[in-house]
Amino acid sequence: MRRAALAILTASLLGCGAATPPPETPEEEAEGPPPSYAVALRFADAGADENETPQTRVLLVRIAPDGERVARDLGTEVGACYHQDAGDALILARCWWAGAGARYEVRREGDAVIARRAGVDEMEGDQALEEAARVEVPESARLEVLAPGGAPDVE
Fold it and tell me: Which of 92, 101, 138, 146 has its CA 20 to 30 A from that of 38?
């Protein structure tokens, strides 16, 4: 009896198990929220020049979700630099000393965050903005602006 049951079980296993089941297609992974990158204009003391005029080094900084930092040097400005109300830009800043300086404007354009600079003179006014540097960010990424009065998180 045992032998008969074993023979039936073996036959049924061979009949069913001979075919390989079709591979299962994995369900698409649910997409999480888009990655979030931080951007900032960083001001660093650059010491004084030969006339004892203070100088400030200006950098565009991007911080990736994994903590990787990319900094682009925008140059050294005469005087002190400070943030201004960003309006429709991500970041606005001004550097100023004794009637002259620079204005910085940071905006997102597609897959990049671009910093532009314009020279400023109280007698001649503002020059045209020119690109100073850019950092890449995925077009779908959210941006967190690290600046007082900067734009809130933007997509």
Answer: 101
